[in-house]
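Database export, one record per block. Field names are fixed; values are copied verbatim from the stored entry.
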Amino acid sequence: DLIHPNTLFGMGNPLLDISAVVDKDFLDKYTLKPNDQILAEDKHKALFEELVKTFKVEYHAGGATQNSIKIAQWMIQEPHNVGTFFGCIGKDKFGEILKQKAEEAHIDAHYYEQNEEPTGTCAACITGDNRSLVANLAAANCYKKDKHLDLEENWKLVEKAKVYYIAGFFLTVSLESILKVAKHASENNKLFCLNLSAPFICQFFKDNLMQVLPYVDVLFGNETEAAAFAKEQDFQTEDLKEIAKKAQALPKVNKERKRIVVLTQGKDETVMIETFPVLKIDPKDIVDTNGAGDAFVGGFLSELVQDKSLDQCVKAAHYAANVIIRRAGCTFPEKPDFS
């Protein structure tokens, strides 16, 4: 029962990660929390230059949604191009690297390429097993529904998919693109998955988030995002299981499917109304937690597109995250060892 190409569709911000192990002074200088995701402001402009000059940096293809699609493809292995990805890049060296890396990961990436802005980057500032991410969206912020998503050949790829995944980060870029895909999924009883992605999404892009939420079949998030979401929604609880239940009960357009809420908390158990223990890892084996959340989603999606049970989805999610945190960036060995 072979799975078809383009079964899994993702759309988001394609970024080149510039990652380095930094020190506390560097974090303090740019008022960064050790474990956070933010959008770059003017005060962070110098951060990117200093990072490259001062520390030993590595370049990895990144962007949360794109990472997850690649991990799902890696877990599935064959056929190639099960995962489709849309996003916007610049016509430059970094854009070429992203195209090359997408090809190497065997995903079907269709980038909207424009000249106005350079390809987006994300500074991953690593201290211990924390990572502070500062995203300079640049080109990623220029994605346009009418210039790309609406084009017949592109929309055909959307229609081919059965499972859709978009990280909450894209809510800052193109709400209308997300809604078009979300409505298509809902109207055709397909699975639409969204990630809360960061506390700032739950706080400052709450209106956009709540416009999309009625179409969401699977909602992902971690404990800090869940707490921010609960506060903004006035859930009046900090209990992760309660938050999951309340998020599940929020209005939903497609009544055929009950919403699934999956909340992770690092090394502690994953909450999905019932809880699942995570695979244990020796802290000294943790190289870099950047990409662990994306890998979790990728593993989950890889089983979801094959109509596997939810506990099998969670098992695959834990497996993928466990592999990724042993490596730098969102990178992976040649083949998974998962069944």
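Remark 1: Residues 8-15+62-120+137-325 form a domain with the UDP-N-acetylmuramoyl-L-alanine:D-glutamate ligase fold (CATH 3.40.1190.20).
Remark 2: Residues 299 and 317 are 4 Å apart (CA to CA).
End of record.
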